[in-house]
Specification:
363 residues; 8 helices; three-stranded mixed beta sheet; Immunoglobulin-like; 12 strands
């Protein structure tokens, strides 16, 4: 069970993810203002909003371009820094390798989020990847270069890479207090006698055993045997019931779309935790997907869950308002996830003995 500090850390990470997704969507909308067939903004049109931190220019003039920026140029030791990678490429180009997470060590990468690719003017596609990293070493450092491999519509392979983005990690110690404080003497705790408590516990245990023996003797050997407990309800049945309850709650009719998506995502989270034994409490969507990949789930299931959580996160954290068709597709996707991952139940024919199935008489 997580403590208050862990829950506080989870809430801060959730707010950080929400802000990063909102920034990515704003950048994607601004990137759509570029002129057709050109990578530079047209006259009178505004380009993508630049973050407040440092930004590395595009890697090179070419069909596939990547731009990396950070939210602030300086942090203190252990503070998170948001890295935004904007990848643009012509429509019809297939990206074969783009994994910026591998450029960081496991202790430096806090999380990652991928926004769905969106088309922009000029027959190009914009893909935004957001990462949260930190560092425990002071001094000047840099976000490493991100490599991209692609294949264009004609089958020609190409490679490009971003430029490193410098930033500074500062110490939490001030110049007036460069040394740690002196170690204080240990606090002396008064020692209390334990024998009264041990005696009281022994008397209570003896009394409990005597009462159990008397009750068993009074009931006698002919006492009725309690009926066995009913088997636990399968996870998919619970998920179906919760989805039906959500659809009949009237949230969509009342215009409470965000509340509807929050409860829809929680139903799928609870089903995944019960069905696959993966802890989803106060975890981000990316952390849940990583745990499912570690559990060796099929790529089809993890891909469907990634698309579902991405659609829900857009509404929950980025203030995106979907239309009725998108909401209906999200609900159908939740039902499909439960249908395709539910445990198969043995049919009544499978329980029939081989002799009976073959036409013999059961004895």
């Amino acid at each position: 069970m997580r403590g208050p500090e862990s829950r506080s850390t989870g809430r801060r990470r959730a707010w950080t993810v929400a802000g990063a997704i909102a920034a990515a969507l704003v950048g994607a909308a601004a990137g759509a203002a570029t002129a057709p067939g050109a990578d530079q903004p047209a006259a009178g049109a505004s380009g993508p909003a630049a973050p407040s931190g440092a930004t590395a220019p595009a890697a090179a003039e070419g069909p596939v371009r990547i731009e990396v920026s950070i939210d602030r140029p300086a942090i203190t030791v252990g503070d998170p820094i948001t890295v935004t990678a904007r990848l643009t490429y012509p429509s019809g180009t297939r990206i074969t390798a783009f994994e910026p997470e591998r450029a960081f060590e496991a202790r430096e990468l806090l999380g990652a989020q991928t926004a769905p690719p969106v088309p922009v003017e000029g027959s190009r596609v914009l893909e935004v990847r957001t990462l949260w990293v930190t560092s425990f070493k002071t001094g000047a450092q840099a976000i490493p270069a991100f490599d991209v491999a692609s294949v264009d519509a004609s089958g020609k392979e190409g490679k490009t890479a971003s430029r490193p983005v410098p930033f500074e990690v500062r110490s939490v110690l001030t110049s007036a207090d460069p040394a740690p404080a002196d170690i204080k003497s240990p606090f002396a705790m008064p020692v209390r006698a334990l024998w009264p408590w041990l005696m009281a516990a022994a008397l209570a245990a003896a009394g409990l055993l005597a009462w159990l023996w008397w009750r068993r003797r009074r009931r006698g050997a002919g006492a009725p045997v309690p009926a066995p407990a009913a088997p636990p309800r399968p996870p998919h049945e619970i998920a179906y019931a919760e989805l039906e309850r959500l659809l009949s709650a009237g949230l969509l009719e009342a215009g409470r779309v965000k509340e509807f998506y929050i409860e829809l995502a929680e139903i799928v989270r609870r089903y995944v935790a019960s069905r696959f034994g993966v802890d989803t409490f106060e975890r981000t969507s990316w952390e849940i997907l990583e745990a499912l990949r570690a559990a060796r789930l099929s790529i089809k299931v993890t891909t469907a869950l990634s698309e579902f959580f991405s659609a829900c996160d857009l509404v929950k954290f980025a203030k995106y308002v979907p239309d009725a068709g998108e909401t209906r597709a999200a609900v159908e996707r939740a039902y499909r996830l439960v249908d395709e991952t539910r445990r198969s139940e043995p049919s009544p024919e499978a329980a029939v003995p081989a002799a009976v199935a073959g036409g013999g008489a059961a004895r």
